[in-house]
């Protein structure tokens, strides 16, 4: 399908229109409130230009965005490397599930922020606890989605593979795992969103760089436009990463089609 197809142009136009309406409503609310606590879009834009053209805390805004993105991506990859195999094995092997599930269900309800004190005791105040907090949030989602994908694999596919003489290992790697990929990719996007939500809390732990640090600086300096610029930066980076995951999903799951 052409990138400049009518469908893509309409979709892009609708997105631009929705964004324009949002900014307009934001401006109207800011004008009615007439309060420094609710900055106007123009004030946020001016602050953004200043922030991206100068330095804050010894780093450019680009560098702060890089530090946050690095923490999130490292935590995301670690969570994928540990959470995906665990969820797959829990969904595939009932005995393994019975052994691991009680421990996982005990730890699952604990919010990532509750791990901050013990993360500092374990890992100090460097990069370790920041990455760990993002990791905890992403890890749980990876386990849940990969587990769900495996448990809801069509049993007829497994039976057909068994009928054709596929071994248990072949059933896992050639049938069950490919069938669970859509659920896994949905979990990836949710895990990435969770990691971004956790990065602000993570960067409260003695951070001197990162977008979360920028937001806290805005609060300490009573500078709402700086806070909003930091929030928008997190949102834009999150969108770019989510789009990248959707592109990867289309490559690895060509059989999956979205509703039109």
From TrEMBL:
Residues annotated as domain ABC transmembrane type-1: 65-245
InterPro entries: MetI-like, MetI-like_sf
UniProt-recorded name of the protein: ABC transporter permease
One biological process term in Gene Ontology: alkanesulfonate transmembrane transport
Gene3D superfamilies (UniProt xref): MetI-like
Taxonomic lineage of the native organism: Bacteria, Pseudomonadati, Thermodesulfobacteriota, Desulfovibrionia, Desulfovibrionales
Membrane topology designation: Multi-pass membrane protein
Organism, scientific name: Oceanidesulfovibrio marinus
Spans through the membrane: 12-33, 72-92, 104-125, 131-150, 228-248
PROSITE patterns: ABC_TM1
Cellular location(s): Cell membrane
Family: Belongs to the binding-protein-dependent transport system permease family.
One Pfam family this sequence matches: BPD_transp_1
PANTHER family registered for this protein in UniProt: ABC TRANSPORTER PERMEASE PROTEIN MJ0413-RELATED (PTHR30151:SF0), ALKANE SULFONATE ABC TRANSPORTER-RELATED, MEMBRANE SUBUNIT (PTHR30151)
Keywords: Cell membrane, Membrane, Transmembrane, Transmembrane helix, Transport
GO cellular component, as recorded: plasma membrane
């Amino acid at each position: 399908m052409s990138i400049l197809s009518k469908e893509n142009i309409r979709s892009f136009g609708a997105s631009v229109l929705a964004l324009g309406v949002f900014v307009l409503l934001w401006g109207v609310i800011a004008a009615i409130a007439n309060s420094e606590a609710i900055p106007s879009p123009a004030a946020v834009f001016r602050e953004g230009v200043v922030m991206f053209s100068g330095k804050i805390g010894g780093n450019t805004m680009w560098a702060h965005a890089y530090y946050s993105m690095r923490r999130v991506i490292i935590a995301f990859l670690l969570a994928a490397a540990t959470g995906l195999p665990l969820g797959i094995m829990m969904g595939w092997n009932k005995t393994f599930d019975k052994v691991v599930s009680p421990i996982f269900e005990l730890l699952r309800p604990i919010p990532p922020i509750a791990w901050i004190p013990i993360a500092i005791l374990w890992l100090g105040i460097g990069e370790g606890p920041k990455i760990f907090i993002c990791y905890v949030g992403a890890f749980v989602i990876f386990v849940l989605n990969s587990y769900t994908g495996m448990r809801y694999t069509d049993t007829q596919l497994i039976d057909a593979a068994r009928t054709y003489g596929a071994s248990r290992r072949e059933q896992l790697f050639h049938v069950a795992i490919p069938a669970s990929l859509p659920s896994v990719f949905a979990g990836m996007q949710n895990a990435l969103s969770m990691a971004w939500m956790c990065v602000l809390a993570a960067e409260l732990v003695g951070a001197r760089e990162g977008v979360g640090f920028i937001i806290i600086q805005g609060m300490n300096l009573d500078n709402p436009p700086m806070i909003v610029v930091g929030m928008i930066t997190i949102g834009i980076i999150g969108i770019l990463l989510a789009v990248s995951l959707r592109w990867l999903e289309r490559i690895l799951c060509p059989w999956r089609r979205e509703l039109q």
